[in-house]
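Fig. S4 source data, part A: sequence.
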Amino acid sequence: GGSARAGGARRDVALRLGAAVAGAAALTALVATFAPHVFTGDAALRAALDVWLEPLAVRCWVICGAAALVTTAAASLWRPPPAGTAWRLLRARAERTSPLARALAAVGLGAVALAEPLALLQVVVMAAGAVAVLWGTTELLRQVAPATPVARERRRLPLAKVAVAAVAAFVVGGAAAFAVSGGVEPARAGLCNGEERLCAKTLDQVAFVGTHNSMSADGEPGWLFPAQNASITQQLDDGVRALLVDTHYGFQTPRGVATDLDRDSKSREKVVGELGEAFVETAQRLRARIGFTGNEPREIFLCHAFCEVGATKAVDAFRGVHEWLVAHPEEVLILSIEDDTDAKDTAQLIRDSGLIREVYTGPAGPPWPTLQTMIERNERVLVLIEVDPGKEPWMHRQDALMQETPYAFATPAELAAPDSCQENRGGDNGSLLLVNHWVDTSPAPRRTIAREVNARAFLSERLQRCKRERGLMPTIVAVDFYRDGDVFGTVKELR
């Protein structure tokens, strides 16, 4: 009798201690995981907090898991009531909950399911798996030490409930944090941009599929004249490895984005010359209708001359690129920015988005690093700036590093002409080469033309000619509607 009571006391201590430690560790880990996303509006501060708090969260989840196992071991010595009794207890507790609380809980769960269905599914599946593991562990431990009949342990039922709550906190909280944090680091396959043979090649020896006006995507909200088939993230999924984007200041209104015309450096005449009178008139009509008051906060958007005809919030787009790179650790990108924003704001944009973590900070110019080196250092994004790179050493003036072909082609015949590979911006000084390969049909790019000029025979002939005439591997092959034709096959053949 005395030994049984002593054993029961020790079990009580184990249950209480395990539950307390598991609960405290789970709470700390949840705060460390979610607090930067819930309470911090500044993206740069959020990114910094993520870096500082992530090790703490990981350690807390390890402690929580260990404590949950201790609690499970102690609970295994208690024989739970029959399933029918447990079900009646659950029903009684549910009936004591007010209808309003149940309705609000249902609405909240439904809202989460509608907003983040995949994340919720991941949490549910992972929680179910963890419950199965813990249940199996409990059953195994019961085979080692027989459970005490429930009739003798009624006074310990509250402890069992605490144990279940602690284990549930570990299971559900851990699964949710795992889903939010993105899970474990993706496995590496020993490839560089999808091919093992590219790992030993230097940056200037590799051809990258690029998208002209990458942000101007079919299906993206607000874009009236798309130049690409899909969003930037989908482009990356499809194999695009060079993004050509334009940054502008603008104001978000209830019905669109108004360009900051007081800051925009391009005169109306210049834009008309580049994009046509119809494009400018459409933008001005939209500006009058979108409800711009002048009181909206100024932000940076990815736009093509006028944000009224299409705009993507720049920090969101760049954050998407950063998150994609985290999930794909063996990919190298080139980011070309036609900047109509101040250099310090452009740099801050890259910091706020988190993309700064993958930016290439090494020497810009020959000898360029190999793709393998860039991947090993996690410096996988070369940032090129068209107008003002400012003082940041990792923002490079594009025409100092990259030669370029002309880009103002009105017909496919002009694109195929013998002079289509001649020097343009950058002269012949750079060690990289941008081949602009699209036909300008402003205001609306035409997929039928893209399909023609992106065809393998047409594109291959021009790329080989430009490579021969300029004496450089085309570093970026920039196209419209990258899915039309055979851009990927042609570029792979080129390199």
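Fig. S4 source data, part B ends here. The chain has two domains: 2-79+116-181, 196-494.
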